[in-house]
Design goal:
single chain; 423 residues; Jelly Rolls; 6-stranded mixed sheet; globular
Length: 423
């Protein structure tokens, strides 16, 4: 039997088909590999914000680890509240970094102020953190919250950091309080944590949830979350349901260090890019302005920070918050601030149980009355508050003393501005 002779054109077609088949066979594994990588990368930004996990690597901390490996100065900033301010996970983690990376010169930026969350953090990060050129910023805010501006303030912190230096890495740290235990034991992320996780997804920021391990041990009966005295065979985590004892901080440190090791080889050394903001009015223009930026009526006097008993009662926290405070002891005294933006707030020391201020914005017919009782009966405790958000633009706020307790003064310090001050 004779087979037909295939012409030259037919031979070319068969050779082309054979080449395609061979190419598919040879490169299919590579195509599959790249496809898998694409899926993996997409998954990093699609973690469920409502689910609690100990570590979400996302884009990792490649710039930070590269600087550690290279030696020389490496600056780590700790931005948070009292749990970070304590002699706990902050110094313990810093000591671990020094042991692991002896060639690097580790520099600590302690930017923790008790009782402050992401809202106050967004206002003070420029002065307290970014002016010191950090290579890594730990953000610990889940316990203290965001003052009603949660998503706006968390995103504002991130954008301020990367606007100042796009090679600074960020890591979210979630500490835990007793009211979060049930959610964490059910695998759920507490409400503010879910907001922070959504921001982390958008910006590729890693997050470490210290509460997952604590909740697991408590559920297993290995740990007492809140207790006044030792319990045989168990670790007592805290006395008040929020602030860990030394052993609790050791757990925090261990979770952080194993998470660091897991992230050590993740990501590419490069500048971070800023997408469009998630929140159109996020707090990327937030700052703290000294009281000198405001206009005070004649009855206000500068505070002598070296001798004033009220100011010095909780000096470390008060001085970190008020800085250049003024005080008055008469009803009707005013503070006037002009700004271009959306939101304004005041740092203060209220005293007594009946103190009130009223604030008029842009000659509004009805002022906003704000009660300022001092809840800390045995301390003169510095605090802060915000006025309702305004439409973007130029505004004037006039704070007036409405009610004062006899013999007590009202202290006014730094002013939170979302936007910029107007001369």
């Amino acid at each position: 039997m004779q087979f037909p002779v295939i012409g030259n054109e037919r031979q070319k077609q068969m050779k082309q088909k054979l080449s395609v088949v061979l190419a598919v066979a040879l490169f299919a594994p590579l195509v599959a590999l790249y496809a898998a990588e694409a899926v993996r990368t997409n998954a990093i930004s699609e973690h469920d914000p409502k689910v609690a996990e100990e570590l979400r690597v996302r884009d990792g901390l490649p710039n930070f680890f590269a600087k550690l490996a290279a030696g020389g100065p490496v600056r780590i900033a700790y931005l948070g509240g009292s749990i970070t301010a304590a002699n706990g996970w902050r110094p313990k983690s810093l000591a671990w970094f020094k042991e692991q990376f002896p060639r690097a010169e580790l520099v600590e930026i302690n930017a923790a102020i008790s009782g402050t969350g992401s809202d106050y953090g967004a206002c003070r990060i420029g002065e307290d953190v970014l002016s010191k050129n950090p290579d890594l910023v730990f953000m610990e805010h889940r316990v203290n919250g965001g003052g009603g501006f949660e998503a706006k303030s968390v995103e504002g912190i991130v954008r301020q950091i990367w606007k100042k230096n796009p090679r600074t890495d960020i890591c979210l740290i979630y500490t835990v309080s007793q009211n979060m235990l049930k959610d964490l034991q059910a695998g759920k992320q507490p409400w503010f944590g879910a907001i922070m996780e959504s921001v982390a997804n958008t910006y590729g920021i890693p997050s470490i949830d210290l509460g997952v391990e604590i909740a697991k041990r408590e559920k297993a009966g290995e740990l007492i979350f809140k207790g006044d005295s030792p319990v045989a065979g168990k670790l007592v985590f805290s006395k008040d349901g929020t602030h860990p004892g030394d052993e609790g901080h050791n757990i925090y440190r261990d979770v952080i260090t194993r998470s660091m090791l897991a992230m050590k080889s993740t990501g590419k050394v490069q500048a971070h890019t800023l997408p469009a903001p998630r929140e159109t009015r996020c707090w990327e223009t937030a700052s703290l302005k000294p009281a000198a930026k405001a206009m005070f009526s004649a009855g206000w006097k500068p505070v002598d920070t070296k001798t004033d008993a009220v100011y010095r009662d909780d000096f470390g926290r008060t001085d970190a918050m008020l800085r250049g405070a003024m005080k008055c002891d008469r009803v009707g005294e005013t503070v006037t601030v002009k700004w271009n933006g959306t939101t304004i707030g005041f740092s203060d020391i209220p005293q007594g149980q009946t103190m009130e201020v009223e604030v008029t914005i842009d000659d509004a017919q009805t002022p906003v009355v704000i009660k300022r009782p001092q809840y800390e009966m045995n301390r003169r405790y510095a605090r802060f508050f915000y006025l309702p958000e305004q439409a973007p633009g130029e505004h004037t706020a006039v704070l007036s003393m409405k009610t004062l307790t006899d013999g007590l003064s009202y202290y006014c310090g730094q002013i939170s501005i979302i936007g910029s001050t107007v001369p």
